[in-house]
Amino acid sequence: MSDQATAQRFDDRAGYQAAISGLLTGIDRSLYIFDTDLTGTGLDGRAAVERLTTTLAASPRAEMRIVLHDGGPLQARMPRLWALCAAQSHRVQIRQTPRSLRHLTELFMLNGSSALVIRTHSNHWRGKAVSGDGVLCAGYRGRFDDIWEACSCCISTTKLGL
């Protein structure tokens, strides 16, 4: 890590959600999320959705990209977040991993190039929140881009029909 970089470790769900909340307060232009299904993130809470809505409204070039192993919980059990995704579908993109990538268990959220929350394994709450480490963030951004490109299945937020 660089001299300016800080890392805060967490070992439980509350610590993980607090790290994500901190990450959301500093979104500049982009938020990249790689998660199994978003259920443990707290992103479906009123405060998180309001923060994301405000960020997207304040910056017309802001974007969110989400890659999930399973999009079902987002669609069925997270109505606030799902409504935001639908309302901002031109700036929120969601993809689902192919079976060949379902073995990936290290979950992360990246706020542009300045901050990162890493959960070391999807079955455990242990991880860390890092800010100010451009090299580490760039590495995770490259990893996210590779995962994003490998996903061909998009989750649509629009309903088709009459």
Automatic annotation (TrEMBL):
The record places domain DUF7931 at 16-155
Q: Which domain of life is it from?
A: Bacteria
The record's annotation in InterPro entries points to: DUF7931
Give the protein name, as stated in the record: DUF7931 domain-containing protein
